[in-house]
Specification:
This protein has 478 residues and is α+β, with helices and mostly antiparallel strands. The chain folds into two domains: 63 residues, no CATH class; 381 residues, Porin, CATH 2.40.160. It is built from four helices and 23 strands. The strands form two sheets. A 16-stranded antiparallel β-barrel has the order 2-3-4-5-6-7-8-11-12-13-14-17-19-20-21-23.
C-alpha cells in the first residue's frame, strides 16, 4: 500500500500536470492538451487490457473444456480398445489404408455348460478355446474415410462393420454401409465388460445395421441421425438368419406347433427389420465440478413378417456419463416395444425371435431396461508389463411387462487389463436370465423353436435360477 502512491507521483504525466497547475496555466494550453491526450491513451490501453483479459478467460474456459473432452475421448478409447483394435503400433499402413486385426481366446468356468447346441460364445465349464479371429481396415484419404471389419468364429463368420464416409469441414461426418446405429451413451452402451449389459441382447447396444448415418457437433451438443433400410445381412453359419454380430429380429425354423406337436423341418418364419430411424442427442457439460454427458436416444422401425403379420418396434432411452477424476459412472434407462400380433407360431405376442452369433432365441417383446456401470481407470507407469487396468461393477435388468415372464438380471464384477497389443478381460458374471452365463435349455438347436424355448432367458426366463460364470478373454491386436 505504501509503494503505489510513490510510483504514481513519479509518472511523467502526473508530474507534468502538477507543473501546469503550479504555474496557473489555462487548461486550453498546449501542455494541458497533451496531458488530456495522454490520459485518454491510458484509458484506451486499460480498455484493451480488459478486452484481452476477457478473451484470455474465454480461451482458458475453452482450454478446460477441450481438456475435459480429450479426457473423455481417451477414456472411451481405452474402454473400447479391445473391440475397436486401437493398438495401432503394430498396424500395417498402406498409404491412406491402415490394416490390423486381432486374435482372441477364452477361458470359461461356471454354471454355463455351453457346447453342443448352446450359444457359440464359449465352451464347457473349465474349457479353454479359440474365440475370435478378425481383420479390420481403416481408410483416411483427404476427407474420404471408411472402416471394414470381418470376423471368424468356430464354425461361422460374418461382417461386423463395412462403410464408406465423408468428413465435412464443420466437424460433421457421413457414413454409408454397415455402421453402428446411434443408441445409448456410447458405442457399447454403458458397459466396460466383455459381456456387455442387457441392452445388447435385445438389439439396443453395439448393433450394426445397413443404412446411412450423419454425425455432427454444435457447440456443446452432439447429434446423430440415421436411417437403416435393413439389418446387416446374414453371414455364413448353421443358423437360418442369426449369423450376425448385433442382435436383430430374425427368421427361424418352427419346430413345434400351437398344440405342442414337434414339426422339425417346417418352413421358416419370423421377422426382418426394415426402414428404421434413429436419433441421438447428447449435451456435454465439461466446465463443471463433475463433467457429464446427458443424452436421449430414440428409435422406430418396421418389421416385415415371414409367414406372420408385419409389425413394428420402437425404443426410447435416457442416459448419462459422469466423470469424477479417474472414475466413470454410466447409467441408462430404456423402454422398448416390439409390436407383433398374437397369431405368431408360438401363439403369443409376448415373444419375438432374435439372433446373433449363429444362435436364435426368443426375447420379451415389451420391457424396461435399467443399467449402470461404475469403473475406475488406473494407469500403471511403474509396472513395466502393464499399461493400465480398469476395474468395474455393472448391473442391468430386463424388466418385462408380461406377468408370467420373470425379469432377467445380470451382475458383472471384473477388470480390463491393457499391455501393449494385449487386452485381457477377467469377469465374474452372476445372472438370473442371461443365456451366456447359464440357465441353458435342455433341448433344441441353434435355429429351432421348441416348447423348452418358451422359458428362454431373454424371454420368459421360466427356470428363474441364478447362475455364475468366471470368464477370461485374452485378446492380442496386431
Amino acid at each position: 500500500m505504501t509503494r503505489e502512491p510513490r510510483r504514481f507521483l513519479r509518472h511523467p504525466a502526473v508530474a507534468m500536470a502538477g507543473a501546469v497547475l503550479c504555474t496557473g496555466m489555462a487548461t486550453s494550453s498546449p501542455i494541458a492538451f497533451a496531458t488530456s491526450a495522454d490520459l485518454a491513451a491510458q484509458e484506451r490501453r486499460v480498455a484493451e487490457l480488459t478486452r484481452q483479459l476477457e478473451q484470455a478467460k474465454r480461451e482458458l474456459a475453452a482450454a478446460r473444456k477441450e481438456t475435459a473432452e480429450a479426457q473423455t475421448r481417451a477414456e472411451e478409447a481405452e474402454a473400447a480398445l479391445e473391440r475397436s483394435g486401437a493398438a495401432e503400433a503394430s498396424d500395417i499402413e498402406l498409404g491412406p489404408l491402415t490394416i490390423g486385426g486381432a486374435i482372441r481366446a477364452n477361458y470359461i468356468l461356471g454354471s454355463y455348460k455351453g457346447g453342443g447346441d448352446g450359444p457359440s460364445r464359449g465352451g464347457n465349464g473349465g474349457n479353454f478355446e479359440l474365440d475370435t479371429f478378425r481383420i479390420n481396415a481403416a481408410l483416411d484419404w483427404d476427407n474420404v474415410i471408411g472402416k471394414l471389419e470381418y470376423r471368424w468364429y468356430d464354425g461361422y463368420n460374418f461382417i461386423h462393420t463395412g462403410w464408406l464416409g465423408y468428413r465435412l469441414d464443420d466437424a460433421s461426418q457421413l457414413e454409408i454401409g454397415v455402421t453402428r446405429k446411434p443408441f445409448g451413451p456410447g458405442p457399447y452402451g454403458i458397459s466396460e465388460s466383455w459381456f456387455f449389459d442387457q441392452h445388447y441382447y435385445v438389439g439396443l447396444a453395439d448393433d450394426p445395421d445397413l443404412g446411412i448415418k450423419y454425425s455432427t457437433k454444435l457447440g456443446d451438443w452432439k447429434l446423430d441421425a440415421a436411417y437403416f433400410v435393413s439389418s446387416e445381412w446374414n453371414g455364413n453359419g448353421r443358423s437360418l438368419d442369426s449369423t450376425r454380430y448385433g442382435y436383430d429380429a430374425i427368421r427361424w425354423r418352427q419346430t413345434v406347433d400351437k398344440n405342442g406337436n414337434v414339426t422339425y423341418g417346417a418352413m421358416d418364419n419370423g421377422f426382418e427389420e426394415r426402414n428404421q430411424f434413429n436419433l441421438r442427442v447428447i449435451y456435454d457439460l465439461s466446465d463443471v465440478a463433475v463433467p457429464s454427458e446427458l443424452g436421449i436416444s430414440l428409435e422406430y422401425g418396421q418389421l416385415k413378417g415371414q409367414r406372420v403379420d408385419n409389425g413394428s418396434h420402437w425404443a426410447a432411452s435416457a442416459h448419462m456419463i459422469n466423470h469424477i477424476g479417474d472414475w466413470r459412472i454410466a447409467s441408462q434407462i430404456t423402454r422398448y416395444e416390439y409390436d407383433i400380433d398374437s397369431n405368431n407360431p408360438w401363439s403369443s405376442d409376448e415373444l419375438i425371435p432374435m439372433g446373433a452369433y449363429d444362435f436364435a432365441w426368443p426375447v420379451a417383446t415389451k420391457a424396461w431396461i435399467p443399467a449402470i456401470s461404475i469403473s475406475y481407470l488406473k494407469e500403471t507407469p511403474s509396472i513395466p508389463w502393464l499399461d493400465s487396468v480398469r476395474p468395474y461393477l455393472e448391473y442391468s435388468n430386463i424388466v418385462k411387462d408380461a406377468s408370467d415372464q420373470n425379469d432377467s438380471q445380470l451382475w458383472i464384477l471384473g477388470a480390463a487389463w491393457a499391455s501393449g497389443g494385449w487386452y485381457i478381460y477377467t469377469d465374474f458374471a452372476y445372472s438370473d436370465g442371461n443365456l451366456f452365463v447359464g440357465n441353458e435349455a435342455a433341448n433344441g438347436g441353434t435355429d429351432n423353436y421348441s416348447s423348452v424355448y418358451g422359458v428362454g432367458d431373454f424371454g420368459d426366463d421360466g427356470n428363474n435360477e441364478w447362475n455364475y460364470r468366471f470368464n477370461i478373454n485374452f485378446g492380442y491386436y496386431f
